[in-house]
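Q: For a teaching handout, I want to show students what a protein-ligand complex looks like in token form. Below are the inputs, and the small molecule is nicotinamide-adenine-dinucleotide. Please produce the holo structure.
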Amino acid sequence: MQKPILILGACGQIGTELTMELRARHGGENIIASDIREGSESLMANGPFELLDATNYEAIEDVIMHYEIEEVYLMAAMLSATAEKFPMRAWNLNMNSLFNVLNLAKEGKINKIFWPSSIAVFGPNTPKKNTPQNTIMEPSTVYGISKQSGERWCEYYHKKFGVDVRSIRYPGLISWKTMPGGGTTDYAVEIYHQALKEGKYQCFLSKGTQLPMMYMDDAIRATITLMDTESNNLTVRSSYNLGSMSFAPEQIAQSIQKHMPNFKVEYVPDFRQQIADSWPSSIDDSAARKDWGWKPDFDLGATTNAMLKHLSKALFN
Ligand code: NAD
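A: Here is the structure, written as tokens, with nicotinamide-adenine-dinucleotide included.
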């Protein structure tokens, strides 16, 4: 019998799709969504939901006891662009929520944790192309510092206390069901919305800003595959590099123009340009491929096809 799974921060860009996919696989009643706000209509309708603050240890413990939870996916966090504006709030949320779940596992109250890291753990001194799993990191953003510290703590809790925590360094994620939550790669979602609504887009990153990206279906599949992998096969307990495609804003624009030849993009970089410039342009994910058989399905062309098809239905039907 499937033991219930708790998702903290379930109403965000990734949490929404992760919750829906886990519910499709394991039954709605076994996947407990939680957040500090309510989620989409469909998420609220097809399984249990708890209003829950991921920084409140006792409140999480109550929910875990009540539902007899075995696994927790911690998706609550403050993302890169917002964290630059509220550094202490970002640090408190990103670190305290992680300590809460790590300590619950250390005390034997849950068995398995998923916690996402990010390409933001890398910094300006990191080799930019094909960034290796293990390399110079030195992140230069509030968000990246919190993610790198989180990775160190995950590995520490695994080695010292045997906590089964698993993690992926997500690249920028592209999805149509939920809007992104304040990251530096948000442009790669906004651009599809604006193409369909206005036929034009003002991009906050400059031409030539090559970043690692991934379509959401691939990210969800990777997450669930990693969680389903036999523990002994995992050689990385900080966080796995995960690659799929890399492109610059003008390349995503061109892929949209294949469907909408009159689509126009203007480039007006803001403070997010500096964050993007400190990140890798592509990722070496050979450890994920070797340890748990990672292989992406969606390239840029397939992503654009899927985004335009689903979004035009969602926006105009
Ligand atoms: P998001 O901002 O879309 O969603 C985060 C959710 O957490 C929101 O629904 C928010 O209401 C909730 N939340 C905020 N404070 C909370 C609290 N105290 N308690 C409970 N819930 C709270 O973020 P996302 O894009 O879904 O990201 C999920 C995770 O993946 C984060 O750890 C993020 O750093 C990581 N990540 C995301 C991307 C990306 O491109 N989306 C890339 C790399 C890593």
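A: Two things your students might notice: The two ends are 39 Å apart (CA to CA). The chain has two domains: 5-171+216-241, 173-213+244-282+298-316.
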